[in-house]
């Protein structure tokens, strides 16, 4: 009897071992989407941190190469950014004035799929920045000019329907700052803030320069407005130095000048000359010399 019993037990254990062995080597045929997708505002005027977790059915899959395809953009735009990463987090800048759509899916390939790439369904999340106040309370527009790379002035307009007692505040951030900072030198008109003056130490080029203008009013909440600039695109150079005009002949003129002083290298300038004779139309010439 005992011999028969141990024979049955041994046979059963062999079957279990066979099933476990083949389950371990079995190929995945379906993969789940990432779970617990979250979007967190870092308080840096547009920088959002996206994070997620791996799908549950990939736990313990050591033979898989797991990546994630992240697609994001404003909900009203057809131009979405697409990123493939093996990490489970991503940070980028966004336009917080608009609704943001983020979606992500799992990509799996390797021995666990016999070399075939599997793609999960999308997991999607919509993010809306907190916008207290009606849209007519925010500033109308923001215009910024970098003068000869020495300083920058940003000025805004107030909407006609904005509260009469509104007071605006400007904050800015770029990647060299640990946190958003408030404008140190406001431009005022009749005791109302209408802009901000930035010194050269506050400026950075070839990186996003994020600005938020919000405000306060006793009558109603004021909605914030967000802007992102590339400051190298906003530079207005100074006028040329030491302009000299001579008449070597009666029928020609000779004009010479020196490049403007400042931080901009001379080879970066292009010059435009507008001229005309009396009662004739203006003519335009451009030169790098």
From TrEMBL:
<keyword id="KW-0472">Membrane</keyword>
<dbReference type="Pfam" id="PF09240">
    <property type="entry name" value="IL6Ra-bind"/>
</dbReference>
<keyword id="KW-1133">Transmembrane helix</keyword>
<dbReference type="InterPro" id="IPR013783">
    <property type="entry name" value="Ig-like_fold"/>
</dbReference>
<keyword id="KW-0325">Glycoprotein</keyword>
<dbReference type="InterPro" id="IPR036116">
    <property type="entry name" value="FN3_sf"/>
</dbReference>
<dbReference type="GO" id="GO:0004896">
    <property type="term" value="F:cytokine receptor activity"/>
</dbReference>
<dbReference type="GO" id="GO:0009897">
    <property type="term" value="C:external side of plasma membrane"/>
</dbReference>
<feature type="domain" description="Type I cytokine receptor cytokine-binding">
    <location>
        <begin position="141"/>
        <end position="233"/>
    </location>
</feature>
<protein>
    <recommendedName>
        <fullName>Type I cytokine receptor cytokine-binding domain-containing protein</fullName>
    </recommendedName>
</protein>
<keyword id="KW-0675">Receptor</keyword>
<keyword id="KW-0732">Signal</keyword>
<dbReference type="InterPro" id="IPR015321">
    <property type="entry name" value="TypeI_recpt_CBD"/>
</dbReference>
<keyword id="KW-0812">Transmembrane</keyword>
